[in-house]
Recover the amino acids of this structure.
């Protein structure tokens, strides 16, 4: 069992992505996961994105959203 999330980790930014046609992990489970996560850390920092027609895979749209998230939250690498 893990202890409560405290300190700086309470304010970590999270991007969760899910395809709405995922046959392995139904979208409902992604939705339940993000709602639980919002009770554990600052809910304002949790973003849940769904992708129409995407199965248990990835898409260019998802990769662009991930790139944007990384660019926003991590310092540039020289």
């Amino acid at each position: 069992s893990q202890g409560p999330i405290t300190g700086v980790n309470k304010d970590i930014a999270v991007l969760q992505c899910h395809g709405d046609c995922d046959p392995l992990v139904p979208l409902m489970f992604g939705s339940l996961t993000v709602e639980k996560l919002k009770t554990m850390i600052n809910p304002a920092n949790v973003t849940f994105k769904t992708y129409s027609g995407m199965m248990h895979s990835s898409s260019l749209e998802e990769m662009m959203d991930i790139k944007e998230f990384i660019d926003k939250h991590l310092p540039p690498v020289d």
